[in-house]
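Appendix B, example 12.
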Amino acid sequence: MSETNSAVQVTIYLNEADEWQRRPLHLELLKYLREQEIPGATVLHAVAGFTGHSRVKSSTLVDAGGQLPLVLTFIDKEEHVDRVLPRIKEMAGHRLIVREKVVIESEAE
């Protein structure tokens, strides 16, 4: 694995109802990552899922009520991730945050 192709991917498992200072957490995380010049981040909206011991929430259930899962992911150099992760943990520390080493095979332009 070449050092120039290695990076770190961070994945944060959220739900629609999560907030940071009374604003949607996923949007506040995206705003923070943009301010920190992370090259890109994506939030995916799940159609179904659960966390811990909670019931399965589904987009087809009327009672999902803003509790559907969201997954935020971004990739950057390890030193940049090390710099932004403490603030992310402060904002989303109550949720699962996964960090893993990855190899970049192709970069988007």
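The longest helix spans residues 78-92. The chain has one domain: 3-103.
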